Amino acid sequence: MQEKKCIRLEEYLDDYKFSQTSRIRKDGDRIWVPDVYCHNGHSLMVHGVLFDGLPAIHIRCHVGGEGGPAEDFYLSPIIGDDRKKGPDLPAGTRVMMTCPICKEPLRKLVPCSCRVGAYRYAIYLTPDPEELGAIGLCETYGCPQSFVSEDGELIYECVAE
Length: 161
Ligand SMILES: [Zn+2]
Ligand SMILES: [Zn+2]
Fold this sequence. Notes:
Blueprint: E1 7-11, E2 25-27, E3 30-32, E4 45-51, E5 54-63, E6 70-75, E7 84-85, E8 95-98, E9 107-111, E10 119-124, E11 134-138, E12 147-150, E13 153-160
Antiparallel strand pairs: 1-13, 2-3, 4-5, 5-6, 5-8, 6-7, 9-10, 10-11, 11-12, 12-13
The protein binds zinc ion (2 copies).
């Protein structure tokens, strides 16, 4: 666990249709994703680790980049919640994120402003990446700047202040 950072959650869509089957869910103030996949359609949700009762997102990271030691990380499925379980790394460590099932590196999406050359990588809200629902995660350990898009439109973005 790391110290709490100041994160602003930007909402870009006021009229998102939350439902029992929507790809983004809401109960009370909590907004979360029930399922996420790698670009090959493998579900990354695990029930062995929970955040406030919700299944975690399992990602395997190579510390320092390709060829680095592999470590398992479990991320909170709650949007704007940067809690994760896994080894503590020095803030700013670059990690190569991979799918724990097919072992392939996640797909590169867009740059992150935390550091020159840093990128955010995709996990998907549906098994088919062509459906353009994605979560972008930064490759820099400790960087909370993630976002959620659906149908190619930005819906939420976490911005470090
Ligand atoms: Zn996979
Ligand atoms: Zn970043």
